[in-house]
Specification:
By secondary structure, this protein is an alpha+beta fold. The chain is built from ten helices and four strands. Helix 1 links the parallel strand 1 and strand 2.
């Protein structure tokens, strides 16, 4: 029997969450090496030259970048399609995934989650309150104004849930971890779409592992995840001291 696909990454990363949800959708067995963001040894850097997570290992093949990984999964494995069949819809899905990974990543991860969660807890540094304020007052509202025009009032973007839906919603879970909630009265489509996506079994099944990883001490985190039933691999690419080079959360 072939080994499961391995994903190196953190359960709380929106990029890793996207990949794991897509693996669930397609019914692909997988294991996770729960590397802590900003940790990683030289062997990890050989797999991910930009020191980013997630990394996929599938037999002798490996790849980094969540969009590359999801495209590979959709092309290499049967099952639930991650992208729609129509060429125009596929292009739109790819664009919305890219918009999430870049613009929402900048706003909800680097300007909010990183500032409010990672800087004080990982680096022992103060939050850049000016950057947080700019994101909350200008950047995030503008992004939600755009998404309100793109997202459906009901269901998912292209009928069945796919990678574009997951990519968008994933960043708002991290926003929630940093204290941000979408104003349903102002952005009802965006709020409803994010809620439906995060409640879908492919994403919801990951929440328990995220809660463990957010709450457990780094040294005891692996055992806590095992106790919670997380599908972990025996391999580990982590090191004892953090390195700022791991760019994607």
């Amino acid at each position: 029997m072939a080994r499961p696909v391995t994903i190196i990454g953190s359960f709380v990363s929106p990029y890793v969450r996207k990949v794991l949800a897509c693996l669930h959708l397609k019914g692909i067995p997988f294991e996770v090496d729960p590397i802590t963001p900003f940790f990683g040894d030289d062997a990890f850097e050989r797999l991910s030259p930009l020191r980013r997570i997630p990394v996929l290992i599938d037999g002798d093949f490996h790849a980094s970048d969540s969009s590359v990984i999801c495209a590979y999964l959709d092309e290499a494995y049967p099952g639930h399609p991650l992208l729609p069949a129509d060429p125009c819809d596929r292009a739109r899905a790819r664009w919305l995934e890219e918009y999430a990974d870049t613009r929402l990543g900048d706003l909800l991860i680097w300007s909010l989650f990183y500032q409010r969660v990672v800087r004080p807890l990982v680096w022992g540094e103060p939050t850049d309150e000016a950057r947080v304020a700019a994101a909350l007052e200008e950047g995030i509202p503008a992004a939600l104004d755009y998404l309100e025009q793109q997202l459906p009032a009901d269901g998912f973007l292209f009928g069945e849930i796919g990678v574009a839906d997951i990519a968008i919603a994933s960043f708002f879970r991290n926003g929630d971890y940093a204290g941000f909630t979408i104003d349903r009265a102002r952005w009802p489509r965006a709020a409803g779409h994010v809620e439906r996506t995060l409640e879908h079994p492919c994403v919801a099944t990951l929440l328990a592992f995220e809660n463990v990883q957010r709450s457990a001490n780094i040294k005891g985190r692996r055992q806590a995840l095992l106790d919670a039933g997380a599908p972990l691999t025996e391999q580990s690419w982590g090191v004892r001291e953090p390195k700022r080079g791991v760019m994607a959360l």
